[in-house]
Amino acid sequence: MTSAWPRPRLRLILATVNIVILLLPLAGLGLLRLYESALVRQTEAELIAQAAFVAALYKAELVRQAADSKLDLSRYGRVNPVARDRVPRWQPREARLDLASAPVLPPVPDAMSGPPADALAAEAGARLMSILQDAQRTTLAGVRVVDYQGVVVASTGAELGASLLHLTEIASTLEGRGTSTLRERLPQQPLPHFTSISRGAKLRVVVSAAVVEDGRVLGGVLVSRTPRTLGEVLYHRRYQLTLAAVAMVMVVLLIAVFTSLTISRPVRALIQQSGRALRGETGAVVPLAYPVTLEVEQLSEAVAEMATDLEDRARYIRTFASHVSHEFKSPLTAIRGAAELLQDHPDMEADERDRFLANIGADAARLNRLVGRLLELARADTIPHGGGQHGGGQHDEKAVCDAADVLQRIGQRGGVDLKVGEGECRIAIDSATLESIVASLLDNAHQHGSGRAGIACTVDPRGAGVVIDVWDEGAGISKENAERIFQPFFTTARNRGGTGLGLSIVKALVNAHGGSIELVAQVSRTTFRMIFPLVAHQ
Predict the structure, then answer these.
(1) Under 8 Å CB-to-CB from 493, ≥6 apart: which residues?
(2) pLDDT exceeds 50 at position 388
(3) Multiple choice CATH, 391-532, 3.10.20.70, 3.40.50.1860, 3.50.50.60, 3.30.565.10
């Protein structure tokens, strides 16, 4: 039983299962890594907003202080080399840090001594100090405001009046370019409380923003904070993660069930069928209804075919043994009875003794014919199917003959009507075996009183092969007997010495050479039709 739908191969099922199992942890790691990068970018975006807000406050204080001091800011600060063209009104800044590609710089170095801060910047920074320190309680971000010389004028730490010009972030900021970098966290800093955002973080996100007015850089803002770590996020999402773990377990269970249904269950069904067959149950092994995979389907069909063949062989052997014992028992019983009579009556008349001895000889001859026929049947049954071929469908030239030539030789002996079609009739059987098969069919016809017999050989134009008909115009075969004529030991001529093995041997030889034989129902003739595959020239 072959399904109309293509079945997957077993190796495809196993490969798919292994790939899915492999991808589960990899996908989890990938998602965690992506989420960790998302946490960094989230922190960067928050710091960009804070830096922009602090820069706006600082610039507003500078403008107010300059107005109070009647100072012209058009000559204050540094020329902004980035703003050569007209600066657009909207200047959005995206978070772009990525753990996979962004370099991690060393920890932020300590501030250094430098020139004194600009007086205007120092005054503006002093007004921001309390605001920055108050906001740090909520944002947890460290903020430093520098003047155009890189000197800290406002800070949430203790760097007031020190120089940060040696920082790459400040150097780029004073040139008009805001930066976003990743730096290592200072190892000597103590770990914060467990629920803190920065607990266990090994990185700090550092964001800088330039304070720009009318094409000049008035100063810069440096904001830093450690991002939220996966441990902290996972702790706060422990319930959702528990559900995800349960879902993962369910996926693994579904994979196990899928593997069981596609592999284990069909194999167990085959094992159960084999066990029933071992216990002697006939017909127990059949093709599986749901083999799922192609290999299991092929295995199921092969095992079922093998079991059927073994059951047929066992049935054939039992029947064959019964027939053999019956066929041997009759002549042996007659021989034994005649021998006992000869032993018990030594004074038996010569004519009667000769009659008993003749019976013994006839029965012995019958046993000899029976043994010879059994040997022929055994040899015919042991020939591999398609015995005239090598593996791969290549024909052996020694086992190929032209059926027309063989039948012509038989017809030359006389007593047979012969009709052979045109062209070569090459079939995969040796000439001696074909001649023996046709001779056996003709002998069978003569034993049943045929007055006329004939042979016809043609090549089927429909491509069926070479058709050989052996016919006779004898007494015919009844419908009941026609169903049994190829069974071993079945004969209607037992009183004439028939063994009932002739047609069985013919059928075995024809089948062994890739052909077929059947009895064709005709009104006035008994015809045995054999069909052999046509062999083309190599």
Answers:
(1) 447, 448
(2) no
(3) 3.30.565.10
